[in-house]
Specification:
InterPro entries: Fatty_acid_hydroxylase (IPR006694), Sterol_Desaturase_Related (IPR050307). One of its GO terms (molecular function) is iron ion binding. The chain crosses the membrane at residues 14-35, 55-77, 97-115, 152-172, 178-198. There is one protein chain. By secondary structure, the protein is mainly alpha-helical. 61% of the residues lie in helices and 0% in strands. The protein binds zinc ion (ZN) (2 copies). Residues 132, 195, 215, 219 line the site of one zinc ion (ZN).
């Protein structure tokens, strides 16, 4: 902590962000790489195809969407603020932090579910989301493979319901602003877990909270009948409600997409805008 404080005093904010992300990356490697060696569902190398590209996405996904989001989120927050009765805001604000956090994870999931589903169902949005699905070998780091437009869109969709019910508010109330930050942190950490190449199964718990098997089925390329399932980030029963849950005992055999995908980072970032493809 002392080191971080010294860095904050002596480095520009951007450089401090990079150091912070490097520390997180080391912790994630220490956690997931040994586990994926011991409990691998699919035999694959640590430095699999696309590993370096995904490492770049790790930094891009952590830095860029947050900065792009500041202005639109503030506008959306203020816009929606006028539709929420003041009494509701006050009542929600008076609830304990744990309650507001749990409620935010559930309410936000409905927004995220539909944002993610639209990413699959609307061809314009799929152009961006296809990058995340282009991974043919899935591990913890695939969590970061996402076009910034994809991340911004799904994050906005996840946050709109929070603003609508007063669980998140426009700037000015520190106590309220903690909840969205914690939702992002928990969601991101859980995202690494559900992408990981771990053969763990959890019985009936898999219907309550998302697991690697649940999200690996979202990435399957085992045929048209099995794609477009399991859109939820953390709560599988939201998929159950909307009729997209698929959670058999076995695992997918094949991952990825059928369409073309540029091999490198720059090509992938540009591809969604290139209408010749
Ligand atoms: Zn998807
Ligand atoms: Zn995924």
């Amino acid at each position: 902590m002392e080191i971080l404080r010294l860095l904050q005093q002596n480095l520009p904010p951007f450089a401090v962000d990079i150091v912070r992300l490097c520390i997180w990356l080391v912790l994630l490697v220490i956690l997931f790489v040994p586990l994926e060696r011991v409990f691998a569902q699919h035999p694959q190398k640590i430095f699999r195809k696309g590993f370096l590209t995904d490492l770049c996405y790790y930094f891009i996904s952590s830095l860029i969407p947050a900065h792009i989001l500041v202005v639109p989120m503030a506008m959306i927050a203020w816009g929606l603020h006028y539709f929420v009765p003041g009494g509701l805001h006050q009542w929600v604000a008076g609830q304990p932090l744990g309650m507001r956090l749990a409620a935010s994870l559930v309410v936000g999931e409905f927004g995220f579910y539909w944002g993610h589903r639209w990413m699959h169902e609307i061809p314009l949005l799929w152009r961006f989301h296809a990058i995340h699905h282009s991974a043919e070998q899935i591990d913890w780091l695939v969590n970061t493979r996402a076009h910034p437009v994809d991340m911004v869109f799904t994050r906005i969709c996840g946050f709109i319901p929070l603003y609508l019910v007063g669980l998140a508010r426009p700037m000015g109330n520190d106590k309220m602003d903690m909840v969205p930050l914690m939702v992002i942190l928990i969601g991101t950490m859980w995202g690494f877990f559900i992408h990981s190449n771990l053969n763990w199964r959890f019985g009936w718990l898999e219907w309550l909270i998302s697991t690697p098997a649940f999200h690996h089925w979202h990435h399957t390329n085992d045929g048209p009948a099995l794609i477009n399932k399991n859109y939820s980030a953390m709560i599988p029963w939201v998929d159950k409600i909307f009729g997209t849950l698929y959670l058999p005992k076995q695992w997918p055999a094949k991952y990825g997409i059928d369409g073309p995908m540029a091999p490198g980072l720059a090509g992938q970032l540009i591809q969604p805008f290139d209408y010749r493809q």
